[in-house]
Amino acid sequence: MSNGRSFYITTPIYYPSDLPHIGHGYTTVAVDTLARWHRQAGDDTWMLTGTDEHGQKMLRAAAANGVTPQEWVDKLVEESWFPLLRTLDVANDDFIRTTQPRHEERVQQFVQALYDRGYIYAGEYEALYCVGCEEFKPESEIQDGTGAFEGLKVCAIHSKPLELLQEKNYFFRLSEFEDRLLELYRDEPDFVRPDSARNEVVSFVKSGLKDLSISRSAFDWGIRVPWDETHVIYVWVDALLNYATAIGYGTDPAQFDRRWPAYHVVGKDILRFHAVIWPAMLMAAGLDVPRGVFAHGWLLVGGEKMSKSKLTGIAPTEITDVFGSDAYRFYFLSAIPFGHDGSFSWEDLSARYQAELANGFGNLASRTIAMIERYFAGVVPAAGAYADGDLAVQRTVADAAAAADAAMERFRPDEAISAIWTIVDALNGYITDNEPWALAKDDAQRERLGTVLSTCAEGLRALAVLLSPVMPASTQKLWEALGQSERLVDQPLRDAGRWGQLAPGTTVNGLAPLFPRIEQ
Ligand code: MSP
Predict the structure, then answer these.
(1) Whole-prediction pTM value?
(2) Nearest atom (ligand 1) to Cα of 273
(3) Which CATH architecture has domain 346-495?
């Protein structure tokens, strides 16, 4: 059902040495929801995620555990990172690992091409390096250590000592791209979103770019520089290229042309790599820059960026084991304006689960199905003449569907969900106003009762379709309860707001609570 419009979207590739926490899960479900939306809307969609497996951080973690780096990453990817996708119900089209030959060979090809075009030169380098960030730190992110690190320079992000590195390095002529990058940000105002992220990137580039060290010779866990076997390629250059190698850069031109350019969704911590270095690398290679980079905010726990190293890390399974994957997806995507930081708390999660999912959406679904069973023997009645209140519900559905699509186009799943929620609220209000249980007591109101319950059922039909990218599991149950045999994921999203798609005469099936009560 493709309309030919390409939509290629990526998550960052994760360092497998950290166990997955809810911050990684947040990026992943946001991208999955956007991808599911576009796929179900008929866009030619491809969603990529994966793992970033080279670099000093991985090498040290493996050594500390007494295994080779390859054994180390294989184990973590298998035991932690593949399962994360199932835990969160993610429908990715591909998973790239930077240790795969399909990646390593094409990274060498890309870097060789930059070298041949004169964008890489050899030089001496001495600078402070943070292994946590895998980055030579700019002045602004270097601080004086305190406590145990008194007298040392520490990384502003990791609060751990920096290491002074002195080596011969190969450099990428990043400084040559200042003007072209500024033109890009000016001509494509949506290249970096939201505006706060765009402003940060523009002022960073305006303050002047230095050439980038793109190789390391002090260790060998990486991809060899093709013209100098004593160096490996800097892990960030290697990692960024995953977005191109995964779709056939250098091997499958048809696939590459079909997919590229991509939309990248990243945490704001890694915005500069994606919005400055990566487009410059692509420009140097003569390839198109990405369609856009969207930077989301951080999940904060107790007011701090949640991270495993600061011991505030929460595993996604801690949430999904209790609330389920749909609630996880719904909670993070609806509660935090996408692009802003958001505080996580168990109280907030429980309260929203109860109010919005159990009492709001779940209860609406259960009682509508139960009333159709009780009053119409499980068969969706035909509507009679529509009154103003019925027509208002129809308008709400049409408006919500259009607003949700527009919000998803803007990379705002939070706004899309709040648009869709106007349907939940409207239908709950409609049931209260129309009191179908009272209508059922009066034979003269039989037709009116049919109109009311068919309106509710049709509203639920729209909700199942519109919410399926956000909550694939519960909407599937609702879809089956509505007696539908076609696949929910095949229901065209951009047509979801059109009234009257659920045929009268359809037989509904009993529905267990979509969001069961949770014992505190
Ligand atoms: N490997 C690099 C990315 C290379 S992409 C070419 C990396 N990996 S990471 O595992 O450390 O983090 C990846 C992403 O996880 C972040 O960009 C962000 O999207 C997400 N998050 C990690 N901690 C987070 C929070 N506390 N809150 C929200 N997202 C967080 O960086």
Answers:
(1) 0.95
(2) 6
(3) Orthogonal Bundle (1.10)
Tell me which amino acid residue 331 is: Y
In the Cβ-directed half-sphere of 3, how many Cα atoms lie within 13 Å?
11
Taking 70 as the threshold, does the pLDDT of residue 311 lie above it?
no
- The yes-or-no answer on residue 155 being catalytic is yes
**Active-site annotation holder among 155, 231, 268, 456:** 155
CA distance 294 to 193: 5
Q: How far is 274 from 126, CA to CA, in rounded Å?
A: 24
Reported confidence tier of residue 309, pLDDT bands at 50, 70, 90:
low
- Helices then strands, counting H and E runs in the chain, come out as 21, 18
User: What is the rounded CA–CA span in Å between residue 245 and residue 7?
Assistant: 17
- Would you call 38 a catalytic residue per the annotation? no
- CA 105, 110, 116, 120: dihedral to nearest 10 degrees? -110
| DSSP codes, 404-442 | HHHHHHTT-HHHHHHHHHHHHHHHHHHHHHH-HHHHTT-
61 band by pLDDT with thresholds 50, 70 and 90: very high
Output the CA–CA distances (angstroms, integers) from residue 239 to 153, 173, 281, 305, 485, in the order listed.
Answer: 27, 18, 12, 23, 43
Check if 456 is active-site.
Answer: no
Cα of 24 to ligand 1 centre, how many Å?
6
Catalytic-labelled residue, pool 54, 130, 264, 268: 130
What is the pLDDT, as a whole number, of residue 310?
59
The single-letter DSSP state of residue 514 is S
pLDDT in tens, 240-253: 999 999 999 999 99
Strand-strand pairing, 153-155 and 192-193? unpaired
Ligand 1 pocket test target in 73, 266, 278, 310 with most atoms within 8 Å of CB: 266
Give the distance (Å) from ligand 1 centre to CA of residue 220.
24
Burial of 514 (0-12, 13-18, 19+ CB in 10 A): buried
CA angle 347, 315, 78 (to 5 degrees): 160
Q: Which amino acid is at 91?
A: A
**Kind and range of the H or E run holding 287:** none
Nearest CA to ligand 1 atom 9: 14
